[in-house]
Every structure is written in C-alpha cells, then in structure tokens.
Amino acid sequence: MAVNVARPGEARRGDAPPGEARPGRWAGRWVPWLVIGLWLVLAAVMVPLSGKLSSVTTDKAVDMLPASAESTRVAALEDSLPGGEDNTFVFVYRRAGGVSDADRATVQRHYDALVKRYPPKTAVSAGDEDDDDGGPATRVSTDGKAVMFTLDVSTAYGAAETLVGPVRDAAKDRPAGLELKVTGPAAIDGDMDAVFDGIDLQVFLTTVIVVTVLLILTYRSPVLWFVPLVVVGVAALTSMATVYLLVKGFGIVVNDQNSALLTILVFGVGTDYALLLIARYRETLHHHDNVRVAMIAALRGAAPAIIASAATVIAGLLCLLAADLNDISGLGPIGAAGILCALLAMLTLFPAVLVVLGRRIFWPAIPRFNTAPQDKPGLWARLGTAINRRRWIATLSSLGVLGVLCLGLTGNTGPLREQDQFLSPPESITGFTVLRQHFPELGGQPMTIYTRPTHQQQVIDVAKRTPGVAQVVAGETVAGWADISVFPTDAPDTPAEYDTIKRIRTAVHAVNGAQAIVGGPSAEHLDTEITTSRDEKVVIPLVLAVVLIVLGLLLRAIVAPLILMATVVVSFAAAFGGSVFVFDTILGFQGIDYSAPLLAFLFLVALGVDYNIFLTSRAREETVGLGTTAGMLKALNATGGVITSAGLVLAATFAVLVSLPLVMLVEVGFLVAFGVLLDALLVRSVLVPALTLLIGRRIWWPSHLSRPTTQPPKHQHTADEELALQH
C-alpha cells in the first residue's frame, strides 16, 4: 500500500491541485454547520408564514382581468357600489313533457323561500316582471318545457363558493321528473372555486411523491434521495412565506393558479439544480480526499451554470410585469421569488448538508478518492460518436422531427370558452346549455352597462337599437350610477356575441355625458383575448432578448447564443404543435386557454434553455483544453445522464398539473412537460451537439476560442481518438 508522502513541491493526499481552494477559512469544519444553523433560524421564522399564503390568495375577477380593460372598470365599480357585488344565480327547471301547474307552483315556492332566506336588492326575471305565464319573478319558455328565475344574493351572505351549495340544497324538494339546474355567473364562479379548493395541498403532496420516486430511481440509493427532497421542500416553504410577505408588504395579487405554479416551479427547478450539483460533486470526490475541498471544486464547476440558469428564469419571469393581464403579470414576482429561494437553498443549504453527511450519503455506490477513471464511456459517448460521424444526418433528422410536430399548429388553436374549461362539466355549465335551449331569445350571458342616471334612458334606447341585442332591462340606481342589463341574441363567447359587445360599446360611448362602460362575463373574456394578443407581442420579444443577453454573458460569444435561442424557439413551436394535436384530436378540447401559450413559451424558453446552458457551459470549459469537437463530445458524455434526469424530473413535476380537473391547467402542464422532454432528449442531446460540430470553433465567435491557434492544445485529438483515450 502506497504511503502518501509528498516530495517538495508536490501536493499531498487531500490537498487541492494548484489554483484550487484548500481547506481553510472558507472550507473549515464550522462553515457547513453555520450555514445549516442559519437556515434553521430562517425556517423557524418562514415555515409558519408559508401556511398563511392560502389566506391571501384571491380569484376575484378584478384581480385577474386586464388592468386597463373596460370590463375591469365595470367589475371594480360593481365591487365598490352597495350591492353591486351581488352573486347572481339562475334557476332553470325543465320537464321533458312540459311543465305542469304543480311544477310552476313548486318553482314559485322555491323562489319565495330563497328570497326570504336571501333578501336581494332586486329579484326580477330576465324578462318582463308581469309575464302572464308565470309568477311575478318567473318566466316560462315558449315551448312550455322550462321555467326560470334569477336571484341576486348579497355578498353579505357569503362568497359564491360558499353560497352555491346551500342555494342548490334549498330547491331540492320538487316533483319527480322536474329537473333543476342552478347556473349563472355566481354558480359558475362557485364551481370554478370548488376545482381550486385544496389545490395547493394536492399539488404539493403529488409533486413530493413524484419527485421522491424519480430521485430514488435516479440515485438507486436508500438515503441520497432524501437530502435534495428535504432541501427543495425547505426552499418551497420559504418561497411560499416570501410570497406571503410580498403580498402583505407590496399588495401583490396571488391567485390559486399562480400559487400552484409556484410549487411546481420551485420543486422542478430546485431538483434540477440538485441533480447537477450532485453529479459534479460525485466527480470531484474522485479527485479530492477532503469532502469540503471536493464541494468547493464542485461549486466552482457547477455554480456558474446554475446561477446563469436561475438568472435566465428569473429575468424571464420578471418580463411578465410588462403584461396587462393581472394574473399573468402577478406571476412574474411570485415565480421570481420562488426561483431565487430555490437557488439560495441549493447553493448554500444543500452543499452544507452534503458536506456534513460526507461520502457515506452515496451508499452503496460511494465515490472513492483516486479510484475511478475520468469520463467513463457509455451511452452518451457512443451517441456523441454517432453524431460526430453523421453530423448532417443528425441535424436534418432532428429538424425533420421538429418540423413534423409543428404541423400540429394547423389544428384548433382558437380560444377556449369558459364553459369548456372543465374536464367534467359541472351543473352550472350544463345548466347554461339548458337555458340556451329553452330560452334562445336570451342569447348569451347578460352584459352590464353602468351609466350616469341622467342619461340612463338614452343609453337604453341606443342599446335597444343595436343589432344583436335581444332585450334591455333597467336596473337600480346606486351612488350616482345606473345599472343596465343587456341580453345578446348570440351564444356566449362566440365571434357574433363579441361583435355585438363591440357595437354596444361604440354606441353607448357616443352618448355624450353618459360615461357609459360595458362589462360582464363575455365582455371580460373579449377583453382578456384582446389583451393576451397584446401581451404576447410585448412579453415574448422581451423574454427572447433577456435570455439572449444572459447566454451571451455566460458563453462570451454571439453565434452560440443565437444558435441556442433558435433551437429553443423551434423546440417550443414543435412542442406547441404536438400538444395542439393531442388536445384537439385525442382529448377533444374545444380550444386553447388564453394563458397557455404565453406561460408555456416563458417556461419552455427560460427552463428549456437551462439544459443548453448546462451543456454548452461545460463544452466551453472543455474546449479550452481539448478544442471544440472533443470539448463538445466530452461535455455531452459528462452531462448527458444528469441533464436527462433533470429533464425527466422537471417534466414530471409539470405533469402533475395534468391530474387536475381544469382544462387550462391540463394544457399548461402537458405542453410544458412535453416541451421539456423534447428539449432534453432531442434538442439538447442531438441537435445542439450536431450544430456545434458542424459549425466548429466559429460557434464561439467572437471570443478567442473561435480563432485558430498556431499550435493545437496539448490533448487535442480527433473525436474518435479522444474517445479511445477515455477507455
């Protein structure tokens, strides 16, 4: 057995190579314990606050609509006026053979009981109050098969989600064969809120289970998987507490959707960082006997790529602040806070815990000092050899696959209507269909017009003359504003109804002094669709510019960032096209949710470029000594396994959203998961290496690596020779 005795000028066992850190002040035994202690103090403060995040989440229309839209002003005015924020329910009774006198008496009895329990400001029908076919507040359909009435319930009795159940229960007692559907804006809101009820806990637990399984499969160790899981969990709880403090301190709006995305982001990105750091740490443990020195070396190698990755995602998320949609712009600071917490935890707490636990945490495959050959060839080395030998074939075949997937963009990419948002339509949605069948004259959902009382009749007259309007009903006058309901003839969320809304707005705005504004559910959807188109034109170029700048600073080149950005954009188009095919042809969705393309683009560009950052930053590092060809092949061999594992973990965390019963979340989850897999398994594994090998050293232009050297690097060989030497 060799004795570790160093000659003068030589390094002894456990010392760092020249130029690297040695165990000392920054690698002393007390530093990891200090870091852990600081995190324990931080956790003691932040973890209790994390549970309060759900108490400040909101799904009010004002907090989700476009900030500058006319329908947002209507919703805000409704909230500010006494009784303006009432919950409107619509009761639709139906008997296939026609309603009887006993059925009408039952409807009237239900109405009277509900009015007595929830005295509204007004309780009138959508039609004439003195309709001869029903009671003073009920309406019978022209085919005689349905009866309806509306009920406004003050928010003093509770929010829509708490009222919808009791309101439905109050009308359970009815004759056999008489069907009842409770619909209307409040019922739809209540059913939507029921979908999000407990979603934070469901997403958190499901994500923990998914990440646990993947970590166990990745490390095949009974203990190692537990460390990144615990640290990422701490990061997630800390991020939730941070967002809670941001809400309390700066008034940032958080809805249930963004709260769920926060959990997904932190777990997915944090686990990716853990996988990358552990892989580098395992390498350095073969070269350093001292675990603290090995960790410093690992951090020096992995931290720049991890920081660049986090900076890319944070910068991309902050670009959402330029969006006009409140829920989209709110995701910017929320997501950025989550990524920052994940970064800090994985670069401080995680390394400290690994150092304290020592090599034994890798049991049973413990990496031993100076016992393993470097870069053991395997699947990724063979893939690199194949790509190098057939560079054009690899490039063209990859682009061909992406091109075929892009053909899916010819499918149904139209906007998703609100009634198509549920995987299993609730009563409020099916009830709206029944209402439309038996009361076609009422058309879509009513529009709400607020105007000054002095001009109320003028606005009513103008609205009645507008093409596409079925009926106009005057409401109450409160606090200097008159409330008018306008019923369009066309079905909700259709181009024809949207055209009617536009005509109504043009007509009432022309009434001088009326100060009329038009809102309501369909108007909100129209404004959201218009604003989404605007936001995409603003946010997408911003994200591309920010990501390009980060790549340029990291790689100190121009050509490489442009190539990487182009591959990520093509990858997104392919992922979107493939997803549209699945949504349209296989799942039968009726369109794409307004937020899905923008959110998916942000996540796939910001997160997808991460894998290119991990690969190309390692390739640049290796290129300094080996040249571009051998450097890229060595980087692919060294990072292939860990990046693939990271891609699988990130895709699986976003796939958690597919388990939720809302089409929007299914679309975002599937699109991002599919895109991440496509980027990790094809774009990063084949296309980027193939393009790099084709372009050669010019890919690093204008850095010094792009210029030919007078003498080849010491270890520069052909690709096959380099791989042969690695055996």
Helix and strand arrangement:
Elements: H1 30-50, H2 70-80, E1 87-94, H3 101-117, E2 139-140, E3 146-153, H4 160-169, E4 179-183, H5 185-196, H6 199-219, H7 226-250, H8 256-285, H9 291-318, H10 326-357, H11 379-389, H12 391-406, H13 427-438, E5 447-451, H14 456-464, E6 469-478, E7 481-488, H15 495-509, E8 517-519, H16 521-555, H17 559-586, H18 596-626, H19 628-655, H20 663-695, H21 719-725
Antiparallel strand pairs: 1-3, 1-4, 2-3, 5-7, 5-8, 6-7
Would you kindly provide a brief summary of this structure?
The protein is 59% helix and 7% strand. With 727 residues, it is α+β, with helices and mostly antiparallel strands.
The structure class reads alpha+beta
The CATH superfamily of the largest domain is known as Multidrug efflux transporter AcrB transmembrane domain
- Count of discrete structural domains: 4
**Outline type:** elongated
CATH architecture classification name of the largest domain: Up-down Bundle
Percent of residues in helices comes to 55-70%
Using only CA atoms, what is the Rg? 31 Å
Largest beta sheet, briefly? 4 strands, antiparallel
Tally the beta strands.
8
Flag low-confidence runs. 1-26, 122-136, 710-727
Compressed to H and E, one letter per element, the order equals HHEHEEHEHHHHHHHHHEHEEHEHHHHHH
Helical run tally: 21
Share of β-strand residues:
5-15%
Widest sheet, order of strands? 2-3-1-4
Average pLDDT level: 81
Give the N-terminus to C-terminus distance in angstroms: 25 Å
